[in-house]
Amino acid sequence: MAAKLKKGDKVVVLAGKDKGKQGEVTRVMPKENKAVVDGINVAIRHRRQSQAEQGGRVPTPMPVDLSNLALMDASGKPTRVGFRFEDGKKVRFAKTTGDVI
Question: Is 70 exceeded by the pLDDT of residue 81?
Answer without folding.
Answer: yes
